[in-house]
Amino acid sequence: MEKQNDLFREAVGSPDALKAIPKKQIPELCAQIRAELIRQVSRTGGHLASNLGVTELTVAIHRVFSSPADHILFDVGHQSYVHKMLTGRADRMETLRTPGGLSGFTSRKESPHDPFGAGHSSTALSAGLGFAEADRMDGREAYTVVVMGDGAFSGGMVHEALNNIRADDRLVIILNENRMSISRTRGRFSSYLARVRISKGYLCWKKNTKSFLAKLPLLGKPMTRFLSFVKGGLKNILYTENYFEQLGLYYIGPVDGNDFAAIERALIQAKRLEKPVLIHAFTVKGKGYPPAEKDPSAYHNIPPEDEKPSRPPFHAVMAEELVALGKTDPSVIAITAAMGEGTGLSEFEKAFPERYYDVGIAEPHALTFAAGLAASGKKPFAAIYSTFLQRGYDQILHDIALQDLPVRILIDRAGLAPRDGATHHGIFDVAFLSGIPGVRILSPITAEDLRAAIRFAAAYDHPIAVRYPNAGEDLRARSLTPERRDGVTVLRADIRPGEAKEAILIGYGANVSRIFGAEAILNGQGADCGTVLLGALAPYEATADVLLPYLSGAKKILFVEEGVREGGAGMLLLDRLLRVDPGFASRFEILALASPFLAPEEISDLDDLQGISPEKIAAHILQDRNVNYENDNRI
């Protein structure tokens, strides 16, 4: 760090070091923190705008409260970068969002100052309430501070937790309203918060009037009591009933969360109250960095500086095809859960705003809402990241599959997420969807295949999921011969049915590129191998029927799965193949992820650790040929 960051270096050693900084120097410290955030995150990639917005807020929290004795939780954890810096991790920021480096979210394994991991939204208040209740039961005087973006309040769990708070919990909830989640925050709750902001004059009036009346001799106290008595009716005239006060929380705000003195005063007041408090702070996402202030969505999660532009990602292809479909079919509807830009559906919104729904961070609602639309004859497409689809499992099973409703689930970011880590790996959807009867699963291999899958899904009259990785197509896949059924590419292969091969590699999804790499290594070692890429998974009986002829001439078959082994596509396909020929038991092997929750402690290549790098795939085949491949420098 440069010399002008001396104040920054002095403050980031520990929260106690921060408390020793004179208050008059805090604005300069915040400026240096922002400069360091911009420098580091521009290089590593990550969530920049949200962290720039919470700089003063985070500094104030650590000056008023005492972590880790007091519990500080962030929802979502991607707004915790300043918190990481102030709790002794500033010297590791260069490893941010790298396997084995600092997590892009809070992580219990990383620091005692991270009491709870939060990679998914709307969970921290429930967890924070757990901490507060445990402290109360054990007689500890610790505080629990939960920092939540207003986007998180669109998730139902938040309101379930609010309903469960006790009057004596030492719980401080900070509603950090920046009117953004990833996309701009929408919905009735967002509109309600806007009314609260507008009515902040009432709060000042209430405070000043009460102070004035209390000072009047003789009449002051009776008039104050009378004012309290009529406060409910007065609020109805001057101020909309405060949702949080109705739930028993002491409400402070709105407060300028980028004004250090103001937010520190609010936190000190909240701490003195020793009861549940909600501080309504409003901040500017991207504060202090003009490009991020102007376009906070673009700077929500920026790529590393050395990342090279690639071919259009699958989600962009999906959006383009869905827009084209929407032009000819007015029953096509797009649904997202606060991920309009991330899923590409913002393009559909531009074309058909009346048929676009951003339901907020509420995946369960998105899916059941889609089910209702489907039951009414519409054609809903719900685009949800694989890692977030987990939150809607019951809705897929009970509301969609059980009723055989034609909801089209577009599963984005399917596969490992090396930068975001275990909280965001999209590696469970195949297994949990495969266990639900009646759900068809497609995994397009090329952009052309994805377009065909979208068109097929629009005409399909049953539940269907189309999954694709956060990447562009591998152009090598285009050269493989496709086999199509019902207009959908079921598989692509570089071998003919019945062709004799030493080994055949089978894969789907993001494993396409890994398998191409492994095949090149194997052919270089003199192994005669072939590749089959699956564009369709469930129903597995149908996929096995199409696949079977390609496997008849292979001595060894290796199914590579970027997902969990138990209940995954490999196991289910093998089960079907064994019913036809028990001999597959000795020829068919599955290479799946070594550990779904793997969190390396040192900087590592995640594919290699998980055992699915091209080198590890090739080694799995070559081990039977007595080739000492483990000593090869490519492993």
Question: In terms of topology, how is this protein built?
Answer:
Blueprint: H1 6-11, H2 15-19, H3 26-44, H4 49-53, H5 55-64, E1 71-75, H6 81-89, H7 124-138, E2 144-149, H8 156-162, E3 171-177, H9 188-198, H10 200-214, H11 220-238, H12 243-246, E4 250-256, H13 260-273, E5 277-282, H14 290-294, H15 314-328, E6 332-336, H16 340-343, H17 346-351, E7 356-358, H18 363-375, E8 379-385, H19 386-389, H20 393-401, E9 408-412, H21 429-434, E10 440-442, H22 447-459, E11 464-467, E12 481-485, E13 488-493, E14 501-507, H23 511-524, E15 529-534, H24 540-551, E16 554-560, H25 569-580, H26 584-587, E17 588-591, H27 606-610, H28 614-622
Parallel strand pairs: 1-2, 2-3, 3-5, 4-5, 6-7, 6-8, 8-9, 9-11, 10-11, 14-15, 14-16, 16-17
Antiparallel strand pairs: 12-13, 13-15
